[in-house]
Amino acid sequence: MLDASNAGIPIHHVSILSIAAAVTGACVGYYAGRWSLRSTAAADRAAQRIHSGQLNECKLEQTEGNTATSQKTDPYNPLPREGFLSWDDYFMAVAFLSAQRSKDPNKQVGACIVSQDKIILGIGYNGFPRGCPDSELPWAKLSRSGDPLDTKYPYVCHAELNAILNKNTASLHGAKMYVTMFPCNECSKLLIQAGIREIVYYEDKAAPVRDTSPNEAAPGNIRNEDAYAASKRLLKMTGVKLRQHKLDRPIVFSLGT
Ligand SMILES: [Zn+2]
């Protein structure tokens, strides 16, 4: 998950767009102007493919100032380009990019709804309702005074809710949602009622270790772990397909200067 910085990405000037194969490390983070998604399995697979010659590492990288021509290809070669994004990586990356719009200093979540024809129908991230100034509501997870009104939970709209409300089609029946974190029980109710039939998630929150810590994430009075247990129960009961996707390979975008 993107837990590091919530700094914005300057999209008005794109000087570098790189999709690079990283051979070590396991991280998902935003750092120093670079946004990256990496997983151990994906990195290992990329390393194996590079080592075996199946994947040309150079072809996966584009360098600054040469973004359009760095891949030297034979213009008469009818084969498709190697290293293109899979559908799962593509839509999950859109969800992660959307999460970078969130002002929440603790958790940035993004969601992307996709039709059965692989068309994006809605995107959302966690934030306060439209018209509510970000500086006038709390982002705190816990209240010093114990007053729940001093925490973010009564006010924040989850990414899944916003993606549904931002839909560009009349119906989401049969659609699929890509989301960076497993949905809570409140969002699962919305997803089921909206007709979403598959949820592809990155971070699993469905089977947390039960503990006695204060409620930190669930809306209302329900405990955090109970919220996700209820969510999984509802989704299983209604036959919504659940699938964790950790990316087929590392994806790195470097935007701006
Ligand atoms: Zn939720």
UniProtKB/TrEMBL annotation:
Alphabetically ordered keywords of this record: Hydrolase, Membrane, Metal-binding, Nucleotide biosynthesis, Transmembrane, Transmembrane helix, Zinc
Segments traversing the membrane: 12-32
Domain of life from the UniProt record: Eukaryota
Enzyme Commission number(s) from the entry: 3.5.4.12
CMP/dCMP-type deaminase domain: residues covered: 86-216
Keyword Transcription regulation among record annotations: no
Cofactor field: Zn(2+)
PROSITE patterns in UniProt: CYT_DCMP_DEAMINASES_1 (PS00903), CYT_DCMP_DEAMINASES_2 (PS51747)
Membership in a protein family: Belongs to the cytidine and deoxycytidylate deaminase family.
Name of the protein in its database record: dCMP deaminase
Gene field: g5766
